[in-house]
């Protein structure tokens, strides 16, 4: 929600589908790291900015290369938009992996801040796969934004949908190849038929609305 990478192919395809592709623009490639009371900047548009950055020493940077080698040796190759195929490698927290494979400074001043900034969680609550995903996301990718702000995509999507508030869904039933959705609005019972239905709610409410899914949910 706060950044857009050229690697987000599905996101960019959706922007194109609804006519926003002409408003995708470049934005700053600079990332700041706190070190010794100041902010050290790394400019992603400059290939030498990272290797020459004083945020950590040369030997510390070599340990980051060690983690990149670990990622290259993974089978199958990691897809950071769908890590499910790499589940066999999801066997260690980033905290444990980083302390084992990175120097202390590389972990404390570069890797852990990057992980917190991207996934909004502490390293002991993140998988090492998330570190590999970050390196994929930043390697060779360009940071982008949408003219007028990132919120333009959900706003444009919402403008093309029939959004009903205070209209609780009461039942979702499959009828052959169609789905029937029943809801109440202004005290009146209503229904509609569609090819598919997405229930974006908690599991207990989903099972109450669609009892036929209870066995699968179990």
Give an overview of the whole structure.
With 218 residues, the protein is an alpha+beta fold. The radius of gyration is 23 Å and the shape is elongated. β6 and β7 form a beta hairpin. The longest helix is centred in the middle third of the chain and has 16 residues. The strands form three sheets. It has a three-stranded antiparallel sheet. The protein has a three-stranded antiparallel sheet with strand order 6-7-8, with no helix packed on it. The mean pLDDT is 90. The two termini are 32 Å apart.
Q: What key phrases describe this protein's structure?
A:
218 residues, alpha+beta, three-stranded antiparallel β-sheet, 9 helices, 8 strands, 38% helix, 20% strand, elongated
Binned, the helix content reads: 25-40%
Q: Strands of the largest sheet, in order across it? A: 1-5-2
Q: Detail the poorly predicted runs.
A: none
The number of helical runs is 9
Major pleated sheet: 3 strands, antiparallel
Any idea what the radius of gyration is? 23 Å
Kindly report the average pLDDT value: 90
């Amino acid at each position: 929600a706060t950044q857009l990478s050229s690697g987000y192919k599905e996101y960019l395809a959706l922007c194109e589908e609804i006519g926003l592709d002409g408003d995708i623009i470049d934005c700053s490639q600079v990332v700041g790291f706190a070190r010794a009371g100041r902010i050290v900047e790394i400019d992603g548009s400059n290939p030498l900015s990272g290797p020459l950055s004083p945020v950590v020493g040369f030997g510390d940077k070599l340990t980051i290369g060690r983690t990149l080698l670990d990622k290259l040796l993974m089978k199958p190759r990691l897809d950071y938009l769908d890590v499910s195929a790499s589940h066999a490698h999801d066997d260690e927290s980033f905290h444990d992996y980083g302390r084992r494979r990175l120097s202390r400074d590389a972990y404390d001043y570069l890797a852990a801040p990057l992980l917190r900034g991207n996934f909004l969680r502490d390293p002991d609550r993140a998988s090492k796969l998330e570190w590999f995903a970050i390196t994929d996301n930043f390697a060779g990718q360009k940071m982008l934004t949408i003219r007028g702000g990132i919120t333009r995509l959900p706003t444009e999507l919402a403008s093309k949908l029939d959004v009903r508030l205070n209209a609780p869904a009461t039942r979702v039933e499959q009828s052959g190849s169609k789905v029937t959705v029943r809801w109440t609005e202004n005290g009146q019972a209503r229904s509609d038929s569609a090819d598919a239905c997405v229930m974006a709610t908690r599991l207990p409410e989903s099972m109450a609305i669609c009892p036929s899914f209870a066995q699968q949910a179990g």
